[in-house]
Amino acid sequence: MSYTIDLPLDEGPPTSYTLHEPRQFNIPSRPFTSRVAFAAVHIVADPARALVGANAVAIDWDATLAYRRHLWSLGFSVAEAMDTAQRGMGLDWTAAQELIRRSVAEGKSVGGNLASGAGTDHLTPDPNRSVDEIIAAYETQVGYVESLGGRIILMASRALAACARSADDYARVYDRILSQVKQPVIIHWLGDMFDPKLSGYWGSADLTVAMDTCLGILSNHTDKIDGIKISLLDAEREIVMRRQLPTGIRMYTGDDFNYPSLILGDSHGYSDALLGIFDAIAPAAAAAFHALDAGDTQTYCEVLEPTVALSRHIFQTPTFYYKTGITFLAYLNGYQNHFKMVGGQETARSPQHLAQLMVLADKAGLLKDPHVAVERARSFFNNLP
After folding, report:
1. In angstroms, what is the C-alpha Rg of the chain?
2. What angle do CA 51, 106, 113 make, to 5 degrees?
3. End-to-end CA, the chain
């Protein structure tokens, strides 16, 4: 059966597009063994509660947690309350605490691995803040996650970027926090394409200098660090840093443009992964990881290759609006019954962008039910203002 839809692929008249049959991915019911793979996951808004003003950050908890169970069932670990969940772009610390609490409990109930973002986002960035204020803010959030028995992803801090005077301030903050954590953490280095307020992180706009500062901090705390996730969309820079990491510290790629080759690796090593795109391409990525576990690099590459065009489209400039595309795809695939986002971010991408996203998802075999996808897309595009 064919499914055809008229899509606004450009500024001209709609273009007729016929969907393919969805791809059937081979996903054994066992954990991945060759790589560690975290999916940074989105939240599902509750538009009914938001409309009546019950909560400025209204979340549909049933759908939000169901999607985490879906990812766990495919073999992924979940990275919770990160930028994919609109952290700092709609999800404030108050709402993040509830999200983390519920997700940690859900993970424990189903045996799902989870790590949660702890940062300083309850502080307003201010160049006049002291380093001690930044340390106290990190201690608050780290303490909360640890009180739940949760693992920590130590998020980059806008407040620290705003007030730090030198690389020494970064070292002081991270030295203090890492000396106190109860179990090894994942350090999060988010590039300014994802968050302009993190420009110059580690005390320098020169990424080589910044990397040296970061590596120095990692070297001083190898027993307290599981790995570092870098999201710079620069494969060569990631490889350079990966080869300099202290023994025992993982490189978690956050490169949503170049992940297949970085995860596959080279004769010197490979990257594990902590990626927002896994939210959108989970079945394909799971099948690829299982192929890699079996030593079948040909299938690994063949499955992931068509997802790259989709990912590069979703993460195109302005990159920080990628959550809109991920949420739209979740809607097309029936994982939520509406296309609404916290803070109204469903309007952050154009209809043309979302139409092209649908085509690329179809070409990657990621529209699991073409009938549902067409009906939902038709309803959305036909009711645009």
Report:
1. 20
2. 120
3. 31
Residue with the two structure tokens 């959550």 = 323
- Alpha-carbon gap, residue 325 to 152, rounded angstroms: 27
- Give how far the C-alpha of residue 364 lies from the chain's centroid of Cα atoms, to the nearest Å: 20
Q: How confident is the model over 127-132, as a mean pLDDT?
A: 98
238 neighbors 262 (Cβ within 8 angstroms): yes
Q: What are phi and psi of 359, to 5 degrees?
A: -65, -45
Instruction: For 105-122, give one letter per residue: b (16+ CB within 10 A) or e.
Output: ebbeeeebbbbbbbbbbe
Tokens 């038709």 correspond to what residue? 378
pLDDT at 11: 84
User: Smallest Cα–Cα separation from 282: which of 38, 45, 107?
Assistant: 38
CA distances from 54 to 22, 43, 48, 214, 340 (A): 39, 17, 9, 42, 16
The CA distance from 191 to 176, in Å, is 23
pTM, two decimals, is 0.96
Non-local CB neighbours of 163 within 8 Å, separated by 6+ positions: 125, 126, 127, 128, 129, 130, 131, 134, 169
Helices (H), the chain: 47-51, 61-73, 93-110, 131-147, 158-163, 167-178, 207-219, 235-242, 259-264, 277-293, 297-314, 322-332, 351-363, 370-382
Residue 362's pLDDT is 98
Higher pLDDT, 105 or 51: 105
The CA distance from 378 to 6, in Å, is 8
d(CA 120, CA 123): 6
Give the separation between CA 225 and CA 231, rounded to whole angstroms.
17
DSSP string, 324-354: HHHHHHHHHTTSSSS---GGGGGGSS-HHHH
Alpha carbon distances (Å) from 67 to 43, 217, 335, 352, 382: 9, 35, 7, 27, 27
The strand pairing partners of 251, in sequence order, are 228
Q: Mean of the pLDDT values across residues 214-238?
A: 97
Helix (H) or strand (E) holding 38: strand 37-40
Enter the tokens of residue 259. 């992940």
39: left (phi over 0), alpha (psi -120 to 50) or beta: beta
